[in-house]
Description:
The complex is a heterotrimer of chains A (66), B (273) and C (378).
Chain A: E1 6-8, H1 18-22, E2 28-30, E3 36-38, H2 49-53, E4 59-61
Chain B: H1 3-6, H2 23-36, E1 45-49, E2 64-67, H3 73-83, E3 88-94, H4 95-101, H5 103-112, E4 117-122, H6 157-164, E5 168-173, H7 177-189, E6 194-199, H8 203-207, H9 215-225, E7 226-228, H10 229-232, E8 244-251, H11 257-272
Parallel strand pairs in B: 1-2, 1-3, 3-4, 4-6, 5-6, 7-8
Antiparallel strand pairs in B: 5-8
Chain C: E1 7-10, H1 11-21, E2 24-29, H2 36-45, E3 52-55, H3 59-70, E4 75-80, H4 82-98, E5 102-110, E6 116-120, H5 125-130, E7 139-141, H6 146-163, E8 166-172, H7 173-177, E9 179-182, E10 228-230, H8 244-256, H9 262-265, E11 268-271, E12 278-281, H10 284-299, E13 304-309, E14 311-313, H11 317-326, E15 329-334, H12 340-348, E16 353-358, H13 367-377
Parallel strand pairs in C: 2-3, 2-4, 4-5, 5-8, 7-8, 12-13, 12-15, 15-16
Antiparallel strand pairs in C: 1-9, 5-6, 7-14, 11-13
The site of one iron/sulfur cluster has 12 residues of chain B, from helix 8.
Amino acid sequence: MVEKPLDIDQKLCKGCGICYTLCPKKAIKGDEKGKVVVDNPDLCSKCGICESHCPDYAIFVRREKK
Amino acid sequence: MRPELQKLFRMDKLPHIWCPGCGHGIITRAIAEAINESDLDLDKTVIVSGIGCSSRAPGYMHFDTLHTLHGRALAFATGVKLANPELNVFVLTGDGDATAIGGNHFIHAARRNIDLNIILFNNNIYGMTGGQYSPLTPTGKIASTSPYGNPENNFDIPALAIAAGASYVARGTAFHDKLLIDCIKEGIKNKGFSLIEAMSMCPTSYGRRNKMGNAADMLNDLKTTAVNINVAKKLPPEKLEGKFLIGKLHHKPYPEFTQEYDKLIAKLQKGAE
Amino acid sequence: MTSKKARLIQGNRACAEGAMAAGVRFFAGYPITPSTEIAEIMSEELPKLGGKFIQMEDEIASMACIIGASLTGKKVLTASSGPGISLKQEAIGYACMTEIPCVIVNVQRLGPSTGGPTSSAQGDIMQARWGTHGDHPIIALCPSSVYECFTLTVTAVNFAEKYRTPVYVLMDEIIGHMREKVILPNIDEIKIVNRKRPTCPSNEYKPYQIDETLIPAMADFGTGYKWHVTGLFHDETGFPSGKPKVIEEQFKRLMTKFDKYSDEILSWEETEAEDAEILLVAYGSTARSALDAVNILRSEGIKVGLFRPITIWPFPEKRLKTLAEKANKIIVPEMNYGQLILEVERICKDKASVGGLFKFNSLPITPEEIMFKIREVL
Ligand SMILES: Cc1ncc(C[n+]2csc(CCOP(=O)(O)OP(=O)(O)O)c2C)c(N)n1
Ligand code: SF4
Ligand code: SF4
Ligand code: SF4
Ligand SMILES: [Mg+2]
């Protein structure tokens, strides 16, 4: 089983749009309310930009241990 | 949230009160990252704030936290640090909190070079009270109390801090979060008054009135207006017009207040033996 | 042990020494007449004791600074007068709300505004009670001798610690600057009270717990309890709450927390008061003139007595009410336009006629003036 790269806490997301606007790979998008949803997980490069710019701590990007 | 950061937050208090897209959440996270990477004793770390949206941050952070009065955070923090210099003391404050009502405490804490780590959330507005102009609202911008454009001038916060005696001064933004984390970490290492101006954004009370787009647009503005000081050194002045500098702006360590006071105590007590 | 010796010292010095004897190890202040000597003495003595003195940039900062220091477990003091006490008010309210022990010495001078920096007055009685906004509990003690400046400052520190509250020592310029011969108690004769600290595990700690003591335990910052302090209305965990039920419960505890302890908190002194037909109610330096007046008039056979509240806030209401049953006239001399008389009238108006003798021209009230007033109503 492959682990999901993105762990999203929908309860915390306020739908500001920062994460999916900044995502360089367009791996995530907004739903009809603007809340984040994973669109295309295979595109995700695990860059972490979404995680570190989410004002609401709703995203956790699983990255390989350094 | 990344599991290793969760121990620094009061997870049960989330979601926080901030509006969607508020830059304060991003900066608060950067502070937690910096603390996490700095190997501080979390039991001996105190976070003090004043009043404002930014000053609500400590309520979400799992430390001894002190949410005080508008403008007075540095005065409270001075008491905490001087009474027990063993403690690592952070001060989270807003542009209004630190430079308007708290301006006097700001320059005097800097003058003492007391070992405090100040993270000043600058969103160019009084966010909490609904968008009145602050000493950092750019001239000409619209606020609820400057409906014809702000007629006043701004402070240059780093210049103010340096002139007053801060031994470490840096600036980061909610967009340049890695740089911000590095600046906070360096500030923590500096034994003295460390001021990190963190450019934030307030889509609700500032962005909307000034037609700056959504939160992502405002983050993008921070990205394009900031110039790293190392890059800026190589640029001609005309390229820097309308820009602001980020990175380490000043670092000049000199004797720190609480350490000097402890030396005085040691001397007096030795003399009495 | 050092043997006791008589010394000729100022009220301000006695106050500073009382604070240190009670365990105060942190002082923040800003110079202002007529309280400055207290800061000067603290700056000299505290570092010798391993304590800290800091001269802040203003009185707002001084008040905030001692609250911060108190949170680390230190016993703390600030001293000021008139304009400086006005500046401290917002932070005093913060200490009431967050229940952080601290002592504020107010060496009263003539006001309002810059008023008379070197003139004595008793014009801050109501400010001590209601100076900060919103309903709040407060304790204020009022010395009328140099010796009492020492002992009541000790008591103030003990009360602050025990009841988690700001406490005022309400001096006046005369008391602060007057020199008297005193023999101060030895350190081992002084009762010291320390705040209650939690013993439970940190995850069970409730800094504003409502229990039968009404005074919750307070953890020192830096000891792992990781608690939150805010001037917003908060629940027993210390975190903000806007729930009307929580606000009401915590507000009630705050407003009634001294009632349970009134036997210990309330103190006063009576001279010939039991059978007095004319009762003087006087405090601070004015009580000294009142005492002289009582002694002189008693020798003439006039039934005059003195009730001197030492705890001004909360006011020793019950006892005064009892005395008022017998006395048919009450006179309140005070160096202001009539402040404590409002409280005395409230308490006694159904029992006795209450009149005032007010002086506000920078001069003290003399025994002669009080006697004149008494003869007037005889
Ligand atoms: C003595 C006092 N004056 C005014 C206020 C009202 N007030 C609360 S927050 C605030 C402005 C906060 O602005 P800033 O420090 O920039 O923080 P932000 O909300 O923008 O993060 C004001 C004026 C107050 N709480 N106390
Ligand atoms: S980790 Fe990077 S690529 Fe993946 S979703 Fe987040 S921003 Fe997009
Ligand atoms: S940045 Fe965070 S809050 Fe904003 S849409 Fe994305 S997940 Fe939601
Ligand atoms: S008003 Fe502005 S600063 Fe305050 S929470 Fe909303 S966006 Fe943030
Ligand atoms: Mg602001």
